[in-house]
Design brief:
Blueprint lengths: L3 E5 L3 H12 L3 E5 L12 E3 L2 E3 L6 E2 L3 H9 L4 E5 L2 E6 L5 E3 L6 E2 L19 H5 L4 H13 L11 H4 L6 E2 L3 H8 L3 H6 L13 E5 L3 H14 L3 E3 L5 E5 L2 E6 L2 E3 L3 E4 L4 H8 L8 E9 L8 E7 L4 E9 L2 E9 L5 H13 L13 E7 L5 H13 L15 H14 L4
Parallel strand pairs: 1-2, 1-16, 2-12, 7-18, 9-10
Antiparallel strand pairs: 3-4, 5-11, 6-11, 7-8, 13-14, 14-15, 17-20, 17-21, 18-19, 19-20
């Protein structure tokens, strides 16, 4: 008899998992509370204009992207990964196209403090406190501007907040030596990528946007006999360490369940533990551009006073666009665009906005974990590992690593 697998969540991870299960001829069903597949990847729409939510790219150097490219060979815009950073945390502005992380200057007397010995860390504050005092202070000011209390959050959130590593200006030789000393130094400091890796990064996204791409994806999944139920919420209930799901009071039979969405209801139904599900809200200012871009690029902004976090240049349907991720504060869209324009001039970009397309959108992210939530999720995963709930790495940031972990797990238990 065919195994019945329920996937809760119709984002990219849920859809990819369904592909792998369908290849094994399992009976697969996807349930999602929204009216369309796509999850966080669905674009913003404004006056028929499409704008990506953040820098939502696919890493082309992954097993799962190779599968997508084979299924949808003409759907993707594949390009060299171009990035930059604009750091205004020093006594002067520092900008570079070699990094996408903070670039920080330190006084000569702190050189001896750059070498860090291994220490146990739990919170984000523990992690940034490993740095010399001047770096710690500058990162702390940046986090304060983001209204992030580093004592409350897990140290793993450094990735989500784009502060996982720091480049120390003018100290390349010293940092190169220290990075080889131990893992903690390697994890905390950055050198130019080409000095470490020989390969060049390439990324991709659907050239006509994610909404249309997920319409194609839906048709492909249905052709593989995957059942898809949209605008549907499943209620979880645990009985003798087995997860049961109900749809409008009727039990949905299954052999295994992969829950890729927010696990708050799932965990509460198991042990009545309520996770905080911290929401990191931001505002994204968008505009079409009158002039055409030669290539895509994103620039990280590190400032202790500005509202701008990231500038993203890209194209959808051959239309050049700019999206600017900002802190959740009262902002004027045109002022933000002009501030971004001035920043971009440092990178050689001269851009002109299509004023009729300017808009602001609010977005919410749930990927920044409090220390409390991380512990609850880890304990839950450990307690339910022998149940019919398949492992989902909710506490890991980034779809590449999440999908890698899921695929390895499914192979290990011989489901794919």
């Amino acid at each position: 008899m065919k195994k019945k697998i329920i996937i809760v969540g119709g984002g990219i991870i849920g859809c990819l998992s369904a592909l792998y299960f369908a290849k094994k001829k399992y009976k697969v069903s996807i349930y999602d509370k929204d009216s369309k597949l796509g999850g966080v990847l669905k674009e913003y729409t404004d006056k028929k204009n499409l704008f990506l939510k953040g820098t939502q790219y696919f890493n082309t150097d992954t097993e799962w992207f190779a599968l997508l490219k084979k299924l949808f060979p003409k759907s993707f815009n594949i390009f060299p990964y171009r990035y930059g950073t604009y750091s205004d945390l020093n006594d002067r502005v520092v900008f570079s196209s070699k990094f996408s992380l903070p670039i920080i200057e330190i006084p000569l007397v702190e050189e001896r403090n750059l070498l860090i010995k291994k220490k146990k860390i739990n919170t984000l504050k523990d992690r940034i406190n490993l740095y010399p005092k001047s770096i710690y202070k500058k990162i702390s000011k940046f986090l304060k501007n983001c209204e992030i209390n580093p004592s409350k959050f897990s140290h793993t959130c450094s990735n989500n907040l784009q502060i996982s590593r720091v480049h120390v200006l003018g100290k390349d030789k010293l940092i190169d030596i220290y990075k080889k000393k131990n893992k903690i130094n390697n994890d905390l400091y950055a050198l130019e990528r080409k000095k470490i890796f020989d390969d060049k990064l390439h990324y991709a996204y659907p050239s006509q946007g994610y909404t249309l791409f997920f319409n194609y994806f839906l048709k492909k999944l249905k052709s593989l006999n995957v059942d898809i139920y949209l605008k549907t919420r499943l209620e979880p209930k645990w009985v003798n360490n087995k997860l049961k799901l109900k749809n409008n009071g009727i039990e949905v039979k299954n052999d295994f369940i992969l829950w890729t969405g927010n696990p708050s209801h799932l965990i509460k139904a198991y042990n009545n533990k309520k996770i905080e599900s911290y929401v990191f809200r931001n505002i994204q200012v968008n505009s079409n551009l009158i002039n055409k871009l030669e290539h895509n690029k994103f620039i990280q902004i590190y400032n202790s006073t500005s509202s701008i976090l990231r500038i993203h240049l890209y194209k959808i349907n051959h239309v050049s666009k700019i999206s600017i991720e900002c802190l959740f504060k009262k902002i004027d869209a045109k002022k933000i665009l002009n501030e971004a324009k001035n920043i971009l001039e440092n990178f050689g970009y001269k851009i002109n906005f299509d004023n009729s397309s300017v808009n602001k959108k609010i977005s919410s992210r749930f990927d920044i974990l409090t220390l409390k939530d991380e512990n609850i999720i880890k304990n839950f995963q450990k307690s339910t590992r022998r149940s019919n709930l398949l492992y989902t790495p909710w506490n890991i940031y980034g779809r590449d690593l999440k999908m890698f972990k899921i695929l390895n797990y499914l192979k290990k238990i011989s489901l794919i």
